[in-house]
Amino acid sequence: MCIFCKIASHEVPSYKIYENDHVLAFLDLSQTSIGHTLVIPKKHFNNILELDDNSAADVFKVVTYLSKKISKNLDVKNLNIINNNGPLAGQTVDHFHIHIIPRYDDDEISFNYPSHKLTEEEFNRLKEKILAN
User: Fold this and answer.
1) 70: confidence class by pLDDT, cuts 50, 70, 90
2) What is the per-residue pLDDT across 21-48, written as a single tens digit (0 to 9) for each?
3) Cα separation of the two ends of the chain
4) Annotated catalytic residue: which of 10, 97, 99, 116?
5) Domain residue ranges in the chain
């Protein structure tokens, strides 16, 4: 059983901030910024590629709800909503989860992504490839 399943079944303590029959949200122990929250389905899915539609809807309803509460109650206007899917993307726990990361002035958090320039033809080929089958 993974650590998030143990947290969801209350075998391991957490700083729970939300729970219903299908979803649990708790403070991330590493606190990238103050208020960094994880939202998980209680049912185990390794990643978003395994997640079913109902569980996705349940999780994202809670992400939206908590994002609004965090923004209001911690007085932040900016948030990162992140899912790291797979080890190359930085996923360290094999249980689907969403990070809600409040952003503060001078928080020193940086997300720098490269920019790939594509031609119109390359965009159209890419679009067709993604939408195939």
Assistant:
1) very high
2) 999 999 999 999 999 999 999 999 999 9
3) 35
4) 97
5) 3-131
- Class at the top of the CATH hierarchy for domain 3-131: alpha beta
Distances (CA, A) of 77 to 80, 82, 112: 11, 16, 20
Q: 3-class secondary structure for 54-70?
A: HHHHHHHHHHHHHHHHH
97 is catalytic: yes
